[in-house]
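pasting DoxX family protein for the record, 255 residues
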Amino acid sequence: MLKNKDFLVLLIRLFLGYVFFSAGICKLTHGNFGQLIGPPWLEEVLAKHGLGLFAQVVAVCQVICGALLFTQRFSLLGAVMLVPMNVSILAVTVSQNWTGTPYVNAVFLLLNLSLLLYEYKRFQFLFFPDGMVAAEATPLELFRSGKLPWAILAAALGTMVSARFSYDVTNGFGLLTFGLAGACVLLPAALSKLEKVIVTQAIANMFLMTLGKISGALPVLAVNSGVLLVLLVVNLWLKSRSASAISTKDSVSVV
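structre below
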């Protein structure tokens, strides 16, 4: 069973994976893909200054980082790659005096850094090469195995390639990517029933954002997001209560 911090890291991976994967695809499709952040018109604006290719590179990098986070297997690599991107985005929004956006990007950066902090032992060799010891496996290692991580990368590649030819096919590949990311987390026997419900709702939100142009999708998204947050708080409270009970029981046994 996962601890609170393990489950939160899992959700942060899914959240940041969606944020940047969808943002990249939205740019590649010129706004024809649901997403939380923008701007979808980046290529059009930069192309006026001869930087259209640069905008496409940014979009592709966002998709790659998001897909790596989705896989769980390569999530650490995705988190490392995402740091310079988050710092760059934050610097741009601050220098352009965008209202509110720097705060949102600062939150993304903090979430990004929290993923690295969770696996800080894997970076010990950078600072203590002489006394290097093998990093202990985290409880999330269970989600790394199998063929699903590779299937997620294949679906993400299909989403990027189809973005140049068909928006409908792109949406289809995008939904497939989200579904595989959810399956990668839900199939291993590591989550409680409540945690599986929370993850399922998170994946459902990705679907709803992608299909946001369908009548009725956005109100359902708002309701589902509210329920998700409530269930997440309840789950964290139950886990904390259970951990406290076990700690108290152990203390009594020792006495």
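Residues 4-123+141-191 form one domain.
The CA atoms of residues 243 and 249 lie 10 Å apart.
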